[in-house]
Structure prediction request, 836 residues.
Amino acid sequence: MDQRYNHKEIEAKWQKRWDAQDLHRAHDTSKKQKKYLLDMFPYPSSAGLHVGHPEGYTATDIVTRYLVMTGHEVLHPMGWDAFGLPAENYAIKTGAHPKKTTEDNIVNFRRQIKSFGFWIDWEREVNTSAPEYYKWTQWFFLLLYKRGLAYRKEAAVNWCESCKTVLANEQVVNGACERCKNPVVQKQLKQWFFRITDYAEKLLQGLDTIDWPEPIKRMQRNWIGKSEGATIPFHVMQSTDFVRSRDSQSSRMGIVGTVEVFTTRPDTLFGATYVVLAPEHGAVDVLHEHITNWSEVRRYRERAASKTDLERTDLAKEKTGVELQGLKAVNPANGEVLPIFIADYVLATYGTGSIMAVPAHDERDYAFSKKYHLPVREVIAASEPQESQCYTGAGTMKNSGKFDGMESAQAKWVITTFVKGKKTVQYRFRDWLISRQRYWGAPIPIIYCDVCGEVPVPEKNLPVELPTDVDFLPTGESPLTQSKKFHDVACPSCGKPARRESDTLDTFVCSSWYYFRYADARNPRAFASKKKMAEWLPVDLYVGGAEHAVLHLLYARFFTKVLQDAGYVDFDEPFMKLKNQGMILADDGQKMSKSLGNVVNPDEVVAEYGADTMRMYEMFMGPFEDAKPWNTKGILGVRRFLDKVWQLREKINIPTSDVRGTADVPTLQADLIRLLHQTIKKVTEDIVHFRFNTSVSALMILANAFAKEKHITRKSYKEFLKLLAPFAPHLAEELWEKVDQSANPLHPKGSRSRDMESIFKHPWPSYDEKLIAEDEKEIVVQINGKVRARFTAPADASDTDLQQQAFAHEIVQKWLAGNTPKKVFVAKGKLVSMVI
RNA sequence: GCCGGGGUGGCGGAAUUGGUAGACGCGACGGACUUAAAAUCCGUUGGGGCAACUCAUGCGGGUUCGAUUCCCGCCCCCGGUACCA
Prediction:
C-alpha cells in the first residue's frame, strides 16, 4: 500500500470537481442562515503571493467550511485592490503599462490562491482598477460631494518629494512616506478632502458596539484623539500702552486683538505665565505692524516652515521660540500681563493653534520656561509631595484667588464660565486628504468651468475612464493633465470649454466600499442592490493584518456610516467581528524580504508538500494572532500526520459500518469513543475561537490513538474525516470517497449515493457530553505543596473517599510517618493537598 | 516619553474562575529495516543526581496548603504613537 498520498493528483481532482459542482457558490436566495466571511483583499503585487496571505485565507476557509457543515449559507469572496503606486513605479522604470502588469499579476495571484482549494465564490471577484468597479468608486465620491462631505481647500498638506504626490496623515509614518520612507514636507496646496471629522463622535461610539481586538479599538480611539476642554479668549494689547498707563481701565484702550487658546486644563488658568502661538498662526500676520522685532519673527517662521515633519519632531527635544515684542496678552482670570511667543512646539493644526502656557503643570511649557527663564507658578496642590517641579495631575486649587481650596476637576468649568470661555471638544485627527497627483487610480469625477465653477460629473457619464495617452514620469502634476482628450471637456452644466480634475483618488477610497460590491458584484445599475446587501451584510467576520488599524478600517467604517445616513443601508458598522492575523516571519525570526533572501515561495511549498499540508502547517505554527517564524522542518511533521491519516483507512476492515463488541474490536473501543467525542468538542470549540493550532494538535492526538489500534470503525473514521475536512479539504474528500467506494457490500446502492456526495454536504459531527466524562480519574496527592503520590479513583468519589485513599497510600504513609496532617484540602476529581 | 502586547525545554508552542508545568509538532539521541543512505516504524528526550530527591515558566519580593496564573517593584523584547495643550 502507498505510504504517502499523491497530493498533486488528489488536489487537482477535487479542485476540478468542486468547480464542476459549483460547490463554493453563495446563493442569494438560500433560506439557510447566512454568514459573510471576508478576507482583506490583496494588492496583486508582482512578487506574487506571500506565505502570510494564505494564513488568513485558510482561517476564513476553515470557518467557512465549518459553517457550511453546520447548516449555513456562506459568502466568502475574493478580489483585488488593484490600483496603487507599485504598478505605476514599475511603469516608470520599464514602460510597461500598469493596466497590463496589474492584469498579469492578478492572473498569477488568482492561480496561486486557487491552488489552495479555498471555498471562494469566484463569480463575485472584483477588481478596483476595472472601469465597471471604479465607476462606483466615483459614484461614492459624488455621494459624499452631494452630502457636503467632499470639499476642496488650500491647506498645508503632506508632500512626498520622491513619490511626487500628497499623502493622507494616516500614510505618514514617523514623518516619512509610508511607501518610500522619504521625509514628508509640508506644502500649501489645493486638494480634495473627505470630511471624516464630521463623523468623529460616531466613529468613536461605534467602537463600543463591535467585536474587535481591543488594541485595534484603542488605536482608533487614540487616532481620533478626543479631548474635552475649553477655548478661552485672551486680549492682546500693545505693550507701549502698559508703559503709559498701568491702571487697567485705560489700558483697555490698547486692545489690538484677541487670541483664543484651547486648553484641557482651564483650572490652571491662574498659573499661565505666557501665551504661545504656532508660527503659522494668523494673528501673527494680523498684528504684524505692532511687532517690533519683526525680522527676527519672520526668520523664525521661515525656518519652521522649511522643516520637514521629521526635523520638526526630531528637534523637538530642544524647544525653540521667539517672543513677539511689542505685544502682550492679558490673562482673563486675573488681568495679568503676559508675554506672547511663537514656537513650533505649538501646532497650527490642532485646537486654536495657540495655547496658554502653564509651566508648573505642563511638561512642555515647563521645558520651554526653563530655557527662556519664564516664571513658574503653582496653582494646583498635589495630595502627595511631588519630586518634579511640574505636576500634571489633579489636586486642590491654590494661588487662584477666590477659587482657592476648590478641587481642580470642579474648578475647570467654574473658571471657564468665569472668564467667558466655551466648553470645547477637540479631535486630534483631521480630514482625509484623498487626491493624488498620480496616474494609476480612479479619476476624481469633477470638472472645472470658468463660468459654473466646480461641477460634478453627472452620474450618467460615469465612469470617467483613465486615459491611456499619458507618460508616467511623476512631475508633481498628475499625468492625467497630459491627455488633451481627457483634460479638455465641455462643462456638463453650460457646455462651455472646461477642464477635468486631473488628480486621482487615494486607493483607500476604492477599498472603503468593496465589501458591499461582493453582495452584488455584477450590478450595472447600483454599487449593490439594497436587497442583496440585506441578504449578506454586515460582514460577520473580517480577517486581515493589523497594519490597517487606522487606515482602511477607519475609512471603511466612515463610508458605512455615510451610507446609513444616506439611507442605503440600515446598519452603521461594516465588520461585526475582526480578527488580526500575526505576521509570518522567516526562519531567522526576521521579516521576509527580497533583500534578505529569506522569502518562502508558496508555490514551491504547495508543489512539494501539497496545499492541504501547507494550510494545516500554517494553522499549526502557533496562535493565529501571534507573529511566528517559518520552519520548513515543521511542515514535514504535518505532512507525516496527513500520510498517517491516509494509511488509517487500511484499518477499517469491519464489514458492517458500526458494530461494537465484535471479536475484532478490542476493549479499548470505549476509550477511543471517549477520545473521539472529546476531539469533536475540542475541534468545534477551537474553530469558533480561532484556536487552530490546538485543534490541529487534537486531530493529531486522535489519529495517533487510531494508529495504535489494529482496527477502527468506519463510523469513527468518517467522523474524524469530517473534523479534518475544513483543514485539509482535498485529502478529506478523497478519503471520504474511498471509504465509501470500498464500503460495504452489505448495503444496497441506494444508500450509497448520498454518502457519495461531497463531505461538505454532510453535517458536522456532534458530541455527547456523557461519553466525554471519564469514569476514573487520576488523583494527585500534594504534601506541603509538592506532588508526592498519585492514585486513581472513580470520578464521582467523595471528598472523604479521596482523603481516605490518599492516607492509605504507601508513599503518603511514609511522609506522614505516623503523624496526622495539620490541614487537608480536597479538590474534587483532581487532588488531595495536605500540610504536615 | 506615553499606550498596548509579550518573556515557559535546543526550537514552534500547550496548560490560567490558582490545582499533576512542558500537550502536539520539530530537532536530537538510541534501536529496527537496509549492502548503505533516505523514507518509515519503535523507544528516550527540561536541568542536576545511581537513587530517594532536587532545581526550573525573564529578575526580586508578597499572598496562598498550593502561583506560569493573583499583588508590588524591576529588567528585556515586540507593536503602535510622537510636543494634540
Q: What stands out?
A: Confidence is low (pLDDT under 50) at residues 243-251, 655-668, 745-752 of chain A. The longest helix of chain A spans residues 669-688. The radius of gyration of chain A is 35 Å.
